[in-house]
Each structure stands twice: as C-alpha cells, then as structure tokens.
Give the backbone structure.
Amino acid sequence: MTKAFDTPDEIGLEAMQAVRIIESVVGNAWAANPAGEIVCVSPAVLSRLALTLEEFSSQSDGGPLGWRRMIHPDDYGRSMALWHWCLESGEHFNIEHRTLRKSGAYGWSRTSAQPLRDGDDRILGWYGAIIDIETSDAAARFADTAEAAVQELPSSLSAIHPDDRTAAAHAAARAFWTGVPQVTRHRQRQPDGKYRWTETRAEPGYSVSVDIDELVTDREPRMVTASDTAGEPEPLRSARAVESIFGNGWAFDARGRWIYLHPFAQNSLGVTAEQLNVSVDEGHTAWKQLLHPDDYERTAAAWNRCLETGDDFNVEFRFRRVSGSYVWARTAARAARDARGRIVGWFGIALDIDVYKKTVEALRGRELELSQLVDMVPVHIRRLGPNGEPTFFNKRLLDFYGWKDLAQLETPAGSRLTTAMEMLVHPDDSARLLEAVRHSVATGESYGMKYRLRRSDGVYRWVDGRAAPLIDPEGGIANWYAISIDIDDEMRAQNALRDRERELLQLVDIVPSLLWRLNRQGEPTFFNKRLMCFLGLDAASSDQPDPRRLAAIFRGAVHPDDASGLEDALNRSIATGENFSKRFRLRRSDDVYRWVESNAEPLRDDSGKIVQWYGLSHDIDDQLRVEEALRERERSLWQLVETLPAMIDCAAPNGEPVYRSQQLREFLGYNLEDLDGTGKSRLDATLDAGVHPDDVAGVKEKYAHSLATGEPYARKHRLRRFDGEYRWVETRAAAMRNLEGAIIQWNVICLDIDGEVQAQDELRLAQERLSRASQSASLAELSASIAHEVNQPLAAIVANSNACHRWLLAEPPNLDRAKITAERIIRDANSAAEVVSRIRALFRQRVEPQSNTDLVNVIAEAVHLITEEAMRRRVRVELDIERALPNVVVDQVQIQQVLVNLIRNGMDAMDAAVRDRVVSVRVHRVGDFVATEVSDRGMGVAFPERIFEAFFTTKVNGMGMGLAICRSIIESHGGRLWVQNNEPSGAIFTFTLPIEVEAAA
Amino acid sequence: MQHAQTKAEKLAEPIVYVVDDDEAMREALLDLFTVTQKRATAFSNGPEFLETADIQAPGCLVLDLRMPGGTGLDLQEHLLLAGSRLPVIFLTGHADIPTSVKAMKAGAMDFLTKPFSDQDLLEAVDRAIKLDAERRKVEAERDRIQALVDTLSPREQEVMFAVVSGLMNKQVAYQLGISEMTVKLHRMSLMRKMQSRSLADLVRKTEQLRRN
C-alpha cells in the first residue's frame, strides 16, 4: 500500500484517499493519473500477479502489463480499447472481463473506473475497482442492477448543475458500488435553461426525480469540495473528502470520539456528535446510541480493537433512525496518521445498505427458493460444461447417488464425464449414453434417451434423460442443462405390459383351441397358429392377415352342408350383437372334416358399440363321436332292458322303485307314477297290491332282510297280473355298488315262471304215476329175482333126483352113486330153504342170530366175492381197512349182502364212465362205531334220501329194493346208512355198525 | 361110403360139454349123463371151456344162460366165430322171450327152463348129437367129392362144370376154344377121376359141393 503513495504529487490526495477507501470497502482498487498510467494498485493484486507497481503500470501491448497479465487474453483487446476511449472522453469506464484469480483460474470480473475531476472539471485522475462477479445468479443480477442504476445517472448528468454534478456523480458512484438506492438533491437544468432543485431517488432499475425547488431553503450546495477542506484536522478533512465522494462521512478523534458526522446523518438521526460522545464518557464507544442493541457488542468490540491496533474498521450494523427503526449500514473507517505515523484520528463512511441488505435477503430468498426448487422438483437436474463435464448436480440427484457433492467424480484419471458414465450408468447403457452426450457436445444438438442409473443402494433404475444447451449471446454453448426423470416404475410397468402381451400372444397360440377374431363386419382379422395349422396354412402367411383371404380360406374349409347355417348364425350375431354359438364341420389340413364348436362374443367400446368379435372353436369331433357312441350304447342298452323277455325294476338304495321296464309295466298294468299319492311307499304299494296274500308276508320279510344287509334277494311268489290272475314269478335282486362299496341302486329282475311251475307240477304228477307203475313192474322183477335164487338149487335138486332115480333103476342098481346123489339132493334142498328163509327175513326185517364177528374178514370175503364181477366189468375195487378194528356183532351174510349190493351199485353208476372206474371201500372207526364207506366216481346221487325208499330206483331194470333192504339191515344192526355226494364226482355210501361194548361181551 | 361113416363114429364118440357156474348143477348134470352112459365134461365158465375143450369134436354143449364172466349168448357167439358147429342147449332159471329168440337165432338147439325134466334134457342132447352127426356126415361126403375135384386138371374142371350145366360136347368145345375130340378125351378122364359112371352121378356130386 505504501508504494501506492509513492507519487502523491501526480495524483490528487483525494483520489488516493478514494482508492484507499474503495479498497477498504471492496478491495482490489486502483488509481490512475489523467494519462491513464496506473499510480496505485491494491497490494493484494500486485502480490497475486507477483508484480511491482512499476512493473504493473509499465506499458505493454497497448496497456499496463498488470492488466495484460490480469485480464484474459480474449478480453484484453476490447478492455484496452474501451479504457483508451474513456481516457480520451472522460467517460465512465465499465467492462466485464475474465480475471486471473488467486486460484490461478480465470473468473469473470467487472472493472469500473471513474474520473476524479477538480473544480474546473479537469480530470485529476482515475480511480477504479475490480469486482469479482460471483458465479451465483444473485450476484450476477446484483451486478446487472447496479450497472443499470449507474447507467441511468450519467445520461442525466449533463442536465445537472455543475455545482451539484459531483454530488450526483458520487451518488451514482454509490449506486454503482453498492447498488443501494440513493436519494440526491441537485439542481436540474430545465428546458428553459434554468436550474431547479430536484430530489432524485434512484433504485435499482429506475429512478424517480421530484422537483423540490420550492421546498429547498438551503440553496447553498452542501457539497464540500476538496478545495474547501484545507486547514481542517486530518480525519475531518478525510471524512469530508470521502463524503464528497460517497456521502455520510464521519470522523473520530484518536480516542474514538465523534468529531464529525454528516449533517444529513445528524439530521436524520436527530443527534449531534456531542450527544453521541456522551456514550464515550459513560464508558461505551461512540457507536452506543446509534446502533441496534443486537449489533452493538460486536461492533464495539471491533471498534475497540481498531482503536487499540490502528487496523481498519469495517463492519455492518443496524443503526437507529429518528423514526426509531433500524436500518442496515456498512461502516468503514481508517486511522489518519500524522507524519510520524501516530494516529490522529479516524475517518470513515457509513453506507446505507438496508435496501441492499434487504434486496440481498430477498434475492437470497429467491435464490434459495430457486435452489430449493431446483432441489425439490422431482427431477434430477445437472449442469454440464460446454465440453459435457458435469459441473452441478441437484440435491435430488446427489441423494439418488447418495453423494454430498461432485467430489466423487474427481478422479486422477479420466474426465468427470467418463467417470460418471462408469460409476453411475448401467454398463449396458453407458456406451450409448456417452456417445449421445459426445454427439451433442460436438453438434450442439439436444439429446434425449432412456437409460439406467445406479442408485446409491446399487439398484439400477430407468430414467428418461434430456439435455439442452444454454446458448450464450455469442451463440456459443454456455452450459448444458440436463434433466433425468426416474421412469423405472413406468419402464417396469411397460416391460410387464410387454411381457404380458407377449405371454398373452403365446397363450393365444398355445392354448389347444382355435382362436379367431372378426372385425365389426364379421370378417376375420386374426387366426391363431393352431387354427392356421388346422386349416393347413403356413404361419408365415398369417403375418399379414388379409381379411378377405382369411374369409375365403375359412369359407372353403366349412363343410358344404353346414355353410349356409353357419352364415345365417354369424349374420344374425353380427346384426344383433348376440353371442355366437354354432357347431359345424370344418375341413382339416388332411382333408378330413371335423366337427367343431365355435363360440364368439363381441367386444364393445365404452359406448356399447361392437368393436370386434372374439371367437373360439373347439375340435369336438372325437367328443361327438364318443357321445354318439355313448348315446347309441345307451339306446341299445335301453332297448335291451325294455325288450328283454324279463321284467326289470330298478330301486333306490332304500328299495323304492325308480324304474320299471315296459314288460313289468305291462304285466302290472300301471305305471310307477300311479303309485304316488297313495300314502304308502311305492314298494309297499306294489307289494300289497301285487303279491299274493299268502306270499306277501314272506316277500316283505325277505325284502327287508336284503335291504338291511345288502345281500342278494331271490324268491318265488305269486304276482297279480293286470287281468287279476296271480302268476308265479321268480324275483331276483342284487345291489349295485359304487367304488366305495355303498349301495347306489338295486337291480331287480322278475321272471314269469308260471308256465314252468305248472310244467313242474305236471312232471311231478307224471313221475308219481310212473313211480307207482314201476313199483308194480318191480314186483314182477322181484318175483323173477326170487325165482332165480330159488330155482337154481331147485333145478339141481330135480336133476339130482332124476340121476338118483336112474342109478337105482340101473341093472344092477348103482347104490353107491345113488347115495351120493341123494346126499346132494339134501344139500341142495337145504340151500334152497336157506334162500327162502333169507327172503322171508328180508321182508320181516328181522335180524337173524348174530355173532361176534371180525368185520375185517366179513368185508374182505365180500369184496373177494365181487372181485370177479368187478374184473369183468373193468372196475377196480380198492380196499382200505383200518388196523386193529374191534369186533362187531353182525349177521355176516346180511352185512356181506349190503356190501355187495353197495359195491354193485357203485359199479352200475360207473357203467357210462370211460375211465376212473374205481370203487373204494374204506373201513375205519368213528367213536363207538365202525364206519364203512363205499365210494364210486359215477354220476352221484340226485335224491340222497329218496333212494333208500322201497321201489325207488334210477336203473332201467332196477327193482328199487336193494338200498331199502340194505338200510333195513343196517338199522336192524343198530347202525345207520346214508349217502352223500363224492368230490369231484360220484357218491359215498356210508354205513356204521356199533362196536360191541366190553362190559356186555 | 358105409365104411367112412363107421370109421367116423369110431374115431369120435360124441361128448356132452356142460358149462354152468353153479357147482351143484354141474354135479347133478354130470351125474345124469354118467347114469345114461354119455361122455360128459363140465366147466364152471366160458373162458375155461374155450381154453381147454376141443370145440371141433362131435357132441353138444349144455350151457347156463346166466353166468358170471359172460352170458351163455356171448359164449355161443364165440363158438360161431371160432368155426365150431357144436349144437348148443341153453338152460335158464327164468327165460324171457327176447333172450330166447336171440339164442335160437344164433343156432341154439334147445332152450330148457330150470327146473327141467331129465327126459327133456336127454332127448335134447340125443337130438343134438344126432344132428351133429348128420351134419358131420354131409360135410365128410362133400370133403370126399372136393378131394376128387382137386385131382382134376384145370381144363378138366372147366369141362366138368360146362358138362354138368347141360352143354353138349361141341358146345363145350366152342366155349373153351378146343376141339370136340379134346372135350371127349377130357370128359372120359374126369369121369374116371370123379368115380362117376353116369352124368347124373356127376351132377349129384357137383350139387353137393355147391350146397355149402
């Protein structure tokens, strides 16, 4: 700073002081002599450029070297041009240019300079300032506003009275520097050339001038010029000098007491310097009475420190006006020193910055609002440099990434753009996006595309990004503004929709149905693949469905017999909007006509108008065939049931009849329904009305049993026919069960067996007659048999008698031979008598004297007796006798007779048999009896009891006596004789004989 | 001829075969035939008889109709099949008509019902033996003529059957394609071999051959 004052004689003190003040207020001030040589520069500027003042001001390339260094080369030329013009014309110098900043980068600044003139309006020198233009919009606006205000004034300066021009210029300068509205009073030259007092209030953007000529009493200009200040104390002088530039100057003595305050300030505050100094006397600082209590302590501390150190004082505070309201002001003060450097006082200015403050507040508010807006709108906003490098992300975007600022993008390698692409964009999209950005940067065209951004949680989300360039006045690209909107949900929804659509389409082709669509007129607009295949169309041709072609193909495939019916049905549906449903035959690709069932429904729009028809066809050919076959079978079964020569009845599980075949209905003479309403169940009604009174109880009991147990029912009874005749019927019923085994129905069959029953009766009667007849025939047979038995010995007797007679008549008589013959006669006669006696015994059924006999011998002898006959009849007789059988008391001959009879019966039974001609005789003990079984392999016995009756026989020549005699013999022995059928064939005759009890023996 | 008859009787005295399952009956019958001096043998059943007896011997068979091991009718059939002309007399305890007819048709001599009179039986046996003898005599004569015929040459036989059928010599010569002289020569030769003095005798002899 000291160097700045090295050439004081060449520049007015006032200019120097102004520079210092300006410097203290805004920094970076400078001053120049009328020739434009820089005489003073803020040390900060010099140190930044590493230049001395001399170096700074040395001429280079049409201007000071300092400026050459400081100002961006692109801006230097026009800046210098303007500066030289201003030096010649004395016009206000004001230009924006890029300035080399402390950081080493260029930043936009505004340089303004104003000439300092003496009373003769000669330019004494220039003082100026360099103001960095903040990057924020608010600062830019601030600068614009200030400029506007400044530019407003110079246009009218020429109309201002020369005496007031300085003050007006000062006011303009104040406006220029601070942007604070200023009120100035000056004499304005009227069109008639006279000056009138005018008060002008200048606010950013406009100014209002009010003619106050009549009101002004103090017609002397209050402005103090530099020449007026000579001889006053230094601080005061300085204050006046400052005041002359800015107004509202003030001065303190070295102790900090008021020695000067602008009269306007004193007026407006309603205080004098003396009054203010009372506070100093009270131990406070001189500011005490003026300041807002909230600001005082801070201000006082700063002031006291300045008083102690001699540092510059520069604070903002609120001071009180007469009205009692506080307004913001900035106060800057500097110590005035004597030649020895001692502080002799303080001088400074107070600038009313209330409006400025409030404007700034407002602007800040707006900026904040804007910034909030930028941050709050649900849109990601970013700003890119002209080269595409991201320079700003809004909060939403930062939040989206989970970042605090853009620092994350600062990587040693690569640009911010590529880093952002790598880090933030989905790998599949980054190349595409980068390409788009680069294209836009190169061409200046906007871009817009959809891509995926990586959210802080690592999830990629679809966004719709757009960018547009901000074109600067020169037509270059200042910035790119880009937004991106999170459209992930929409994308997902869209994808889901697309998937669903595709799925639907696949479904349409995959479902095993023939699907089609008709337009409103009934022309086909879509066939699904299956239908295409069915009709034998290749899928490729279906891609361009030509309704007329499809219609023609379809019509061609419909069976000629069904075509008209189908047409009618379709036309009716199209006309009425009714659902369409039709069965018809459609020719398949293999030229086979298949039955299909087609249904269609219209799709209507909101107004109910039909848009198109959706149809579905099923191949029901197989189904139809099956149904037809089923119907056919059912019909045939029905006919079977109805025409079977049997009466058929179906009943519910509880026995209630639910169906009766025609035969049964005709037999009974009434229908099933006729039974209803009688108060009885159908079953009871049928039984009571139909079954013969003698049978009904048994039938009901049997029915009830079957219904309760599920057992089959079978019974013969008499049933009343429609004509009142009772006829024998055989009824059988069986339960029909489901898979679980539960009865679901009773099926009843009822056969009219009246004819058979009658025939059986007749047969039985015939048999009885026959039986009686055969009995008499048997008597003849019996007598013949007896005759044979008796005749045999009789014939021998006769023959012997004759022989004996001849022996005796012979010459000479042979007595010896006669005697032998006579003995034979006796023997034979006895034999004959025995036979007769046995026959008598048989009929008397008396047991002849019995003896304790070994049964085994008796049986063995009997079997031996029959063996010869058995051989002749090619029958084998097997004998199986249990060992150690006890003796029995029997008539040997009778038992043998029984045995021979039984064995002979067995052989007779097997006459017809070809093989297995065996009669087995088995003797074993059963309890107190010995049982003898004679079994054959013949036909078996049809009437196990009747065969023991006398004169009952199944043989052609039989007498019917054998078994009757056998039984009477066995029973007379205290045993039993019975027969049962043998397995697998034949009969077993068994007789038992009691074992002789030991005690009785 | 007389000589031949005597010789046959000497060679084969007729025998009476008895077949009956009843022993008492067999004894009684054998006793009866013994007392009437007839040669007799008894068998208890048919198979035994067929095995041991000479069924070609002269005589007759007294057969019980009802026997175990085959009825009398079966045995009668057997004999016929074996070429025996033995006359059969049936004995039966109770004869029914169908059985009797069947037996008679098969060549039974007689049918006696037990008990029978010894006279009836003996007459039936005599009759049967006589019939058998006559039949045997006829057969013997036929055999003798056949033996004579067998001595003829084939041509002589042809000439003989042509002559006995009533043809004249020249007719025979024409039929056989030979000369009448040759026919005469054959005729003389065959008359000598046939031991016939006349045509009538020759005719009678050839007739006897034809009868069987």
Remarks:
- The domain at 152-211 of chain B is CATH 1.10.10.10 (Arc Repressor Mutant, subunit A).
- Chain B has a mean pLDDT of 84.
